[in-house]
Design a protein that fits this description.
By secondary structure, the chain is an alpha+beta fold. The chain is built from seven helices and five strands, in the order ααααββαβαββα.
């Protein structure tokens, strides 16, 4: 006796809709099927979703988002390269100094122009003015504990939308609306210090900003100080 073959039940519209709802990447994995579908006209007048229009708009949005991301990445890379070139130039200016006075002058007078900031200050803790190198023009005195007050145990502090502090920026404090403070560790036998970059732009420096480049510059400043002061690390 020949047994009748059982027919596979056909999926209805609800089944298809449920499947697509659970597998939203289906057409992404099978884009060729879209060419075989009969899609509703752009204006059906029945409240039916215009599938073709939705897909087209999504593709346009995806393309626009991708282009926007690409532009942002390009701008970020260009900005990083520009900043990197500024740092390299600042390092070369320091290395060309013929005296310790010229080194300090390069940092406090040339850096603001080279790095596009409004002020750069060197702050050294001291209990008196008897420390020879601290008497150089361009280096500011600070009370003992100032470095710990601002940096704690960290090496850097970047803040935006602030009012500049006179103990850091002196007479130029009124200009400063954002700053980057980096610890200077010249040697165990010299006082603690800070190199401070201040900008009138309230968002020039901010807490989430990467500090690799400006941190590298601070390390070069430390090494130049050691060379001119002939002190060990």
């Amino acid at each position: 006796m020949t047994m009748a073959k059982s027919k596979t039940p056909m999926a209805n519209a609800d089944d298809v809709a449920a499947f697509l709802e659970q597998n939203r990447d289906f057409f992404k994995d099978h884009p060729d099927l879209l060419e075989k579908l009969e899609l509703p006209a752009k204006d059906t007048g029945t409240g039916v979703v215009d599938f073709q229009s939705v897909l087209l708009n999504k593709l346009k949005k995806d393309k626009s988002d991708a282009q926007s991301l690409q532009r942002d990445l390009i701008e970020t890379v260009r900005a990083n390269m520009h900043n990197q070139n500024r740092i390299y130039t600042a390092v070369l200016v320091m290395l060309e100094a013929d005296s310790f006075d010229e080194l300090v002058s390069a940092i406090t007078q040339d850096f603001p122009v080279l790095l596009d900031v409004d002020t750069v200050n060197l702050i050294i803790e001291a209990t008196s003015k008897e420390i020879p190198f601290v008497q150089q023009s361009g280096i500011r005195f600070a009370r003992k504990g100032t470095v710990e007050k601002w940096l704690g145990d960290g090496d850097a502090l970047l803040q935006d939308n602030i009012d500049g502090q006179e103990e850091i920026f002196g007479p130029g404090a009124g200009l400063v609306k954002s700053h980057a403070l980096l610890r200077l560790e010249i040697s165990p036998n010299t006082p603690a210090g800070i190199i401070a970059f201040g900008s009138r732009d309230p968002e020039a420096f901010h807490p989430n900003q990467a500090i690799e480049q400006i941190g590298f510059l601070a390390q070069v400043v430390e090494r130049c100080f050691r060379l001119w002061l002939d002190v060990a690390e």
